[in-house]
Design goal:
This protein is of the alpha+beta class. The protein has 3 helices and 9 strands, in the order E-H-E-E-E-E-E-E-E-H-H-E. Strand 5 and strand 6 form a beta hairpin.
Length: 188
């Protein structure tokens, strides 16, 4: 498998909704492997295919929440959540980051509970129901595949701060990416 460059905010592939997967073959399995390798090298909690420039509707997750490890992938995900809060997110408990917005963290309101259904790389049904950090991750990655960054969910001063950061870093045009290093060596 390969560690792939991660696109940075400003690239239009991050704001283009993903294409449903219709072919379940070795190429899809390779994509899932590349997503896991890239996510591990970054390191991240999850990674959507469009973050590495692939338009297919697939994401991986690999994180620890409440002492348990959760690792998997979902193809053609469909998200259902509890109500999303409409209040200002807590700056301590609701911090969220993104591999496509490297080095930045902003308080982001998310639903407490999330369920994602879809299929795996072999086309077999899969469902993941979660609360806490895993629920946040499932919502975050599903948003990516809908063409939305977590920055789009920010409100108030956090939204203004994020816009200012994007402008200062000149992430307003396509072509920016970064290559995570493979553990124990350089990324490929």
């Amino acid at each position: 498998m390969t560690v792939r460059p991660i696109l940075i905010a400003g690239d239009p592939r991050l704001t283009t909704p993903a294409t449903p997967v219709t072919v379940f073959d070795d190429e899809l399995a390779t994509l899932v492997g590349d997503l896991f390798d890239t996510n591990t090298a970054a390191p991240g909690a999850g990674l959507a295919a469009n973050q590495i420039g692939d338009p297919r509707a697939v994401f991986v997750y690999d994180l620890t929440d409440g002492g348990s490890r959760y690792r998997g992938h979902i193809v053609n995900p469909v998200l259902r959540t509890s109500e999303r809060p409409e209040t200002m997110p807590d700056p301590d408990d609701d911090l969220e980051g993104c591999l496509s917005v490297p080095g930045e963290w902003f308080p982001t309101g998310r639903a407490y509970r999330a369920e994602v259904t879809g299929v795996d790389m072999a086309g077999q049904p899969v469902a993941v129901e979660a609360t806490g950090y895993l629920a946040r991750c499932l919502q975050h990655e599903t948003d990516h595949l809908a063409g939305s960054l977590y920055l789009d969910r920010l409100i108030g001063r956090h939204r203004r701060e994020a816009r200012r950061m994007i402008k200062e870093r000149r992430w307003t045009v396509p072509g920016h990416s970064w290559l995570p290093e493979r553990p124990g060596g350089a990324g490929q």
